[in-house]
Design goal:
Helices cover 43% and strands 12% of the residues. By secondary structure, the protein is α/β, with parallel strands linked by helices. Helix 4 runs parallel beside helix 6 and helix 15 packs antiparallel against helix 16.
């Protein structure tokens, strides 16, 4: 599939959030941005329910699979299996700081083992024609990012990696929770910009602390190849993703009401297949953030979408609440 620089803007992989329903919802707002799965561990793919872990809708393209793991052979096997799903990219997680990830010796702890990461990506590349990319931090614990990060990137480049996504914060593996690791370590966007200058032939994308399209545009203008936005794209998706395609010169953009209408056939098909309404609408709660009636929209969906038999009429009631408040 030919993709036109999809990484100019991407939505970060976020556990429990960026599932297939969330990605279909986000795709209604941007045709261009790269969407990432939640992190899926290599052992889960090798030994688990593969369709449940890997299935997605064709409308999600361009879409990337993020893998967690540190065993080259197991990662290679997971990539070989995932080939059947034709993801546009396979990404290796070297940035997640959770205890569960650390105990499995993957995620951010791999920042301390660049040679192992190189072995992993070589094994993954041998099993797929899709680009194999890496998402990392600027360092962990007491590491000096000015030294560690360029060495890490150089090692990846030597293994054939051409695209690195850098979360511009350290990860503290001891003493901070995953939530705190997203907020407390100071951001260093300037360091990531220097990495692009140092490795001009690599695709270098930045993540961390970016909440608006204006910020994204500024970072792109400074020379970075792409910007990845996480929580802001989830909690206030309209402000981040509606209009995002202008970063590619595409002026067309839906409004939030059109996004709801575009989701109706997908929701109806999900319900007909035995799914529950809240599995989709939980991702849509923030669609009208900052707009009159947003509270009523959230309340109706939150209180009713999880009820047995809930259907599209709940969407209609939520829209009625929204529109009544807007007209008041």
């Amino acid at each position: 599939m030919q993709l036109d620089r999809p990484h100019r803007l991407s939505v970060a992989p976020m556990m429990d959030w960026t599932d297939r329903h969330c990605r279909v919802f986000h795709r209604q707002m941007t045709r261009r941005a790269m969407l990432y799965t939640e992190m899926v561990t290599a052992p889960a793919i090798v030994h688990g329910a593969r369709p449940r872990l890997l299935d997605y809708s064709a409308v999600e393209h361009p879409v990337a699979l993020q893998l967690g793991g540190s065993d080259p052979r197991e990662l290679a096997e997971a990539v070989r299996i995932a080939n059947g799903w034709a993801y546009d990219e396979v990404n290796l997680n070297c940035g997640c700081p959770s205890d569960r990830v650390q105990s499995g010796c993957f995620g951010a702890v791999l920042m301390e083992r660049p040679g192992l990461v190189a072995d992993c990506v070589r094994a993954m590349q041998a099993e797929t024609d899709a680009p194999v990319t890496v998402k990392c931090r600027i360092g962990v614990d007491d590491q000096d990012p000015e030294t560690v990060l360029p060495h890490f990137i150089e090692t990846l480049a030597g293994a054939g990696v051409r695209h690195v996504i850098i979360h511009a914060r350290k990860a503290w593996l001891q003493g901070l929770s995953p939530k705190e690791n997203r907020e407390i370590p100071p951001l260093d966007h300037a360091l990531v910009l220097r990495m692009k200058q140092r490795f001009p032939d690599l695709t270098i994308c930045i993540n961390g602390g970016i909440t608006t399209l204006d910020q994204a545009r500024s970072l792109l203008d400074q020379g970075l190849d792409g910007v990845m936005i996480g929580r802001a794209a989830y909690h206030d998706p309209a402000s981040v993703l509606i209009g995002a395609d202008a970063l590619w010169g595409d002026a067309l953009a839906p409004d939030a009401l059109a996004v709801v209408d575009a989701m109706r056939p997908y929701i109806a098909a999900h319900l007909a297949a035995g799914g529950r309404l809240h599995q989709i609408t939980r991702h849509m709660l923030g669609l009208f953030t900052g707009k009159p009636g947003a509270r009523g929209w959230r309340r109706v969906l939150s209180e009713n979408a999880s009820r047995t038999g809930a259907g599209l009429e709940v969407i209609d009631r939520a829209l009625a609440e929204l529109q009544a408040s807007a007209a008041a």
